[in-house]
Amino acid sequence: MGRLKLKSGIKVIEEEPEDCEFMCNRGAFACMVNSEIGAVLAVMRRNVRWGGRYVGDDQLEHSLIQSLKALRRKIYSWQHQWHTINPTIYLEPFLDVIRSDETGAPITGVALSSVYKILTLDMLDLNTVNVEDAMHLVVDAVTSCRFEVSDPASEEVVLMKILQVLLACMKSKASVVLNNQHVCTIVNTCFRVVHQAGTKGELLQRIARHTMHELVRCIFSHLPDFDHMEPPLANGGGSSLKPEGVGLDKDYAFGEKSLENGNGSSDYDASPAIVGFASNASMSTGSVTSSLVDQNAAGLASGKEAGNDMHLATEPYGVPCMVEIFHYLCSLLNIVEHVGSTAGPRSNPIAFDEDVPLFALGLINSAIELGGPSMRRHPKLLALIEDELFRNLMQFGLSMSPLILSMVCSIVLNLYHHLRMELKLQLEAFFSCVILRLAQNRYGASYQQQEVVMEALVDFCRQKLFMAEMYANLDCDITCGNVFEDLANLLSKSAFPVNCPLSSMHVLALDGLIAVIQGMAERIGNSSPVSELAPVHLEEHSPFWTVKCENYADPDHWVGFVRRRKYIKRRLAIGANHFNRDPKKGLEFLQGTHLLPDKLDPQSVACFFRYTAGLDKNLVGDFLGNHDEFCVQVLHEFAGTFDFQDMNLDTALRLFLETFRLPGESQKIQRVLEAFSERYYEQSPHILANKDAALLLSYSLIMLNTDQHNVQVKKKMTEEDFIRNNRHINGGNDLPREYLSELYHSICKNEIRTTPEQGAGFPEMTPSRWIDLMRKSKMTAPFIMCDSRPYLDHDMFAIMSGPTIAAISVVFDHAEHEDVFQTCVEGFMAMAKISACHHLEDVLDDLVVSLCKFTTLLNPSSVDEPVLAFGDDTKARMATVAVFTIANRFGDYIRTGWRNILDCILRLHKLGLLPARVASDAADDDPEAVSADHLVHGKPVMTSLSASHIPVMNSTPRRSSGLMGRFSQLLSLETEEPRSQPTEQQLAAHQRTLQTIQKCHIDSIFTESKFLQADSLLQLAKALIWVAGRPQKGNNNSPEDEDTAVFCLELLIAITLNNRDRIGLLWQGVYEHIASIVQSTVTPCALVEKAVFGLLRICQRLLPYKENLADELLRSLQLVLKLDARVADAYCEHITQEVTRLVKANAAHIRSQMGWRTIASLLSITARHPDASEAGFEALLFIMSDGAHLSPANYVLCVDASRQFAESRVGLADRSVRSLDLMAESVSCLGRWSCEAKDAGEEDASKMSQEIGEMWLRLVLGLRKLCLDNREEVRNHALLSLQRSLTTGVEGICVTHALWLQCFDQVIFTMLDDLLEIAQNHTQKDCKNMEGTLVLAMKLLSKVFLQLVHELALLTSFCKLWLGILSRMEKYIKARVRGKRSEKLQELIPELLKNTLLVMKTKVLVQRSTLGGDSLWELTWLHVNNIAPSLQSEVFPDQEPEQENKQGEPGSPGSVSSSDMLSASEEGIRTAG
Can you give the pTM of this predicted structure? Predict the structure, then answer.
């Protein structure tokens, strides 16, 4: 290190040796000291007094000059480092000049400047030898500075330099060697300069105050360093030098002023606190003196305390001097006590110059800012803050000066930040008695005061945990007020502009509210998902006033504890309300809630009276004064809850009588005062001989209070009267006169209010209340420190949400500036987040309702261009974005609010501002539903503001066409008359509107509805149904109402399809809504169209996924069957197409008979509809072709439907023939199922076979009906199909004999009879070529009988069947078609009969009877002869039937009894007839 030296010639740079730096520094210091000596001497020579001394060599120079010259001679001869030189050597000459009373102000000022320079150049540090003595000398010399005043200006200069040097001492590195006394002396001296500066110039005043602030900051900035150790004594030069002790001045006393504890005057009547700052010499002419400092105010303590104080004063400075300084600063505030603190609430308690308290408050604030949390580790400092400082802050908080009030609030904010754990009750008192009191207009606070208070409150609210800690520690404590609730209500009310425009105060209160809300919202993100807190219940009685928490630092313990306490507090408040109406019922209520025991005891009732706020104090007083034994016991227990230890009698009496109203009856008064006196004497006997003395004196104080403060008493009691009245009451002796005099003046000065204020409003902090507060603060529960997790936010938000929503809404309504709008919207969003996370659905609904009002979308349109007006309305656009942002983010927790949101959506729909995909579902794959020109991912494409990209405003709204897509027009404005091109302002407004709608993402509400919680989804569906309105019977709905209903139905269908996994939740409501539409509509309209096809679409889409709901979904389609005939006819074709689509897509998913019945019914209806039959038959063909989708569940239904298509005359006969083929081919399915049934269990196979047989019977019955069709082609094809079903088709099907007999009776015989009737009774025009049909029918009969004859012959009823066949053949051969017998039948029937008889002969079923009588043989030939007489000889050429009787051998297969044959013959004839 050193300066650079350049060598010539070599051109290199070398550093000088280190010794050169030392030599230079030593030389520089010597030069500096020499120049200061020269400066002082030069100024001294300018003065005649000092200049005349140099006349001759024989005259000696003044000692001051000699010492300076001697120093000059020495400084250059010192060869050692400066820190090894005793600094007193080069400081002493300058200090002598400063101390001298012969020097003038200019000379003293220059000497002070020299000392200041030496101090600021760091020539003195802890390594300097003898630095301790040097620093002491400097402080002593400067604080005892003497000089002659020549002019005011020079005097001010000297005073400023004194301040400068003292501050430099404290900022010097060597300041740690100063002792407590010196630091106190420095502060005292500076304050005296501050006081003196009041009569000097402005500059000196400002510098003096600034120096005082810097001193305090410098001193208290070291407080954290003294937390764990005291600084060691300094030594210089490595050698331990014992510092020279500086003795205490005889007037110096070090120690803390004893704090009032209630033994002295109950008022704040102590004299101003005096810090014993002493100087070693007083200033001479022109010296600074302080009128506020009385050197005789404190004397040196004696004995042990004196020695201890001496030791503290002389040790290196630390906490003791800080305690003394802080005490002194607090004492500067006590000047208010001389003015009096008993002024009314509307008077100004600070009636003196605000300068001194403001200055003191500023210094205190600086000390707290730097001392911070370290103060809690020092009991004396903490005690000063808890009592004296806070007591004075409470008084100055009511100052009319906004400056003082602002400073008080700043100090309290700092105290909260650093020391709130120790100041729980003090903070409560400050908010209750200052903040909340001044904020009320009724207490006479000025606007400036209210504004300062509100600013302070907002600052508190910006502390993230402030409100949570107030709630946990005060609102949840039964002995404290509801500070959080009161502050929240205050902010809400203050934000309301009542009959006035919005002011800065309203916005300020809003900022506070939103700061609280945002704090809660931020805490939500700092924890795991918030779970709902379990409600608190009291299962059994336990004394509520003794509830304790196991660990106030562990949230697992204290959260449940404070919630339980809050529950108790709320129940007590309810109980108090009941008690105020009826005391007996109030106590019974508390017993029912387990707050009081089932059997009342005096202690519980007494604690209820003592700790419950809001009780009617008149009722409490009457109860306590009652002569009933229980009431007397309660009274004594009540008195026992007070702590009167070491308390003045009047103070104790004040506290006691504040809790209830003293009854008016003398006996009640006596009982109350007896209880009080007994308790007081028990705790504070002192000079009282017994409790009777306390009772008499208490009575006397009550009488004195009435005498002094009752306006009706003209002649007031004097002090002598009072003392005389209380003679000999203390056990026969007199009480000390001073004691009685003190009581007298206390009562005269402060009235004991025997009619205390009822709970309304915020009380004034009286001296007795403060004493009580200090006592309670020692016993109150520990302060609970909250962290950044939302433990109590649910309960807090539930309390403040209602007023907060109202307040933000009112400000938002009245605001005109965009920054206020933004603040309000941020508040709304934060509240929505909190409501959702804490599951407060009602709050979120209220919030949505409030916001929707500001969108202007719910207002009746009173403007010509609502879209442009919306684009120009910033507030409306911000509210709209907020509403839909909440719906998208927090929709899970919206309930009734959906109605308002849907109202807004409907309005946007009517204005044509909705994206087209709003009413579509996420899974919709219909490409026509979205216009690619206007949408990207379901949202409008916003373009630039050029006119070419903006929809023409005078165009009519473009609507999508198509049955399934009734969507709103996109981004166009409704107008009735064409007009000119829009202006740039209109284009800008329109573009803003489009951008706003884009930000809303309205379509996401519905497309993402599958993620909504079940309750919210259900409420959304109900809201859609409610908003759509109830359909009116007939056609009374206006087009606008119908459009609304259609749009709502579209949305309802969309969310239904998007929530297919939760269709069970929605289905009932959706079905009922569609049913109401279908059943109330009598003419075709868009709404019923949307309802019907929406229903079909739901079924189409959901059947594959919800098979368990398939029946219910398909049953809903029966609504289509209930359509009015006109409506059904209008939409039949489209309905059928949709049903066909449904069947093709979901046939495999329809398994129940009920489901198929609905489908078959819908298809059957279409059979006779000219437009719909083709699509219906296509669906039927899909189901029945190859039996692809036929099943036992739908077989009969499909056969019936197919029959109806075959019977239908709509379309060509070809379709009927195809239908017949479907029926005939379906019999193969029956065969297949029969085979499958055989593999099942025996019981199941039997049941299945029976069912298949019944299906087959239904099939042939259906074909029988078609055999009667008028159309020849259909009729004949039906006969062939029937024949196939009865012959080849029946293979594999297990048809029982009984079923065959039933088939012959109900199908074949009936068909033959009906055909014959038709042929005989109808004209050729009606039924063409019936002859051919009869031929086919007869062939069918023969073929079926011959196929079954071997099976049926086993039956006892075979005779009846056979005769029935013969009788039909006989009738057919005799039938006349078109008036003549049919040649074809004449030829056919004998041939068929002959073949039949030959088969029967082969099977030995027709034989001669050996027994004779009426036999089957005879009956057979009776009919055969009527048909063809020659057949017998042809079939049995060798036998004579009319001579021989044929009878089957006994036991033979064909044997029948004669009676059976006779009855069968008769039955057959009747049937044929």
Answer: 0.77
